[in-house]
């Protein structure tokens, strides 16, 4: 039975140092893409935030302010020239090296915004300063302003996403929410953000467990049968996630939850935080004045 379902037992070490053995479910025989545990693991940003570095030890407020300053400078200025683009990328790359982050993963996650910005860039491509595109099409002289608008939109979206990704990847979620509250963001908004993050994780766990169950019980279904089955699974997933969310909320109430999340102050503003904000401000000034 274990061979059929791809089950085996192994030891698993947790962050608190405890080690225990448990059954590990791989549906390798049916789908090699599934390598899933039967309990919750941190998401990608949480695992990146666990990397010890000078950037991860900085106060989260400084990282948020620096990211906001740089994003505003990128967004409100005209489309960046090549020299400005390379300057911003160099600044962000230096921060990524300071944070000891894997550049490939950071770039891949920041590129997730491009599919959403691409349709707007295609629309901007056909916006010309005057005349018609019939003469030369999108490669004609009249399309130059459209290409500039499309480039500006894509570059601004990607650089903004890259900046936010670097700030989030070097900050634990609890510290990030605490920093938002200490910066004056209303408690209601920070609480909603915390619930969105946690309930998204719960929903992802339900999706993983149902995919493993599907691969174990119905490994050879045809595409038409799978399409019908996925419809039923979508409804079941919503119900299971809702029930799990209710259990999580009930557990929080039992532990004294009163509508606000406690703030854990573990860091202070110091020289390194001041230097980070200063570097972001100088970079923004270079972009705006160059």
Key features?
single chain; 290 residues; mainly alpha; two-stranded antiparallel sheet; 11 helices; 2 strands; globular; disordered N terminus
Give an account of the 3D structure.
Among the domains are: 1-39, no CATH class; 60-180 and 270-289, no CATH class. The model is unreliable at 1-41 (pLDDT under 50). Helix 3 (60-76) packs antiparallel against helix 7, helix 6 (114-125) runs antiparallel to helix 7 and helix 8 runs antiparallel to helix 9 (187-217). Strand 1 (7-13) and strand 2 form a beta hairpin. By secondary structure, the protein is mainly α. It starts with a helix and ends with a helix. The protein has helices spanning 2-5, 44-49, 60-76, 82-99, 103-110, 114-125, 144-169, 173-182, 187-217, 223-254, 271-289, and strands spanning 7-13, 19-25. The protein has a two-stranded antiparallel sheet with strand order 1-2. It has eleven helices and two strands. The relative contact order is 0.14.
Q: What ranges have pLDDT less than 50 throughout 5 or more consecutive residues?
A: 1-41
State the helix count: 11
Order of helices and strands: HEEHHHHHHHHHH
Largest sheet, spatial ordering of strands: 1-2
**Span between N and C termini?**
68 Å
Biggest β-sheet strands, sense, barrel: 2 strands, antiparallel
Strand content: under 5%
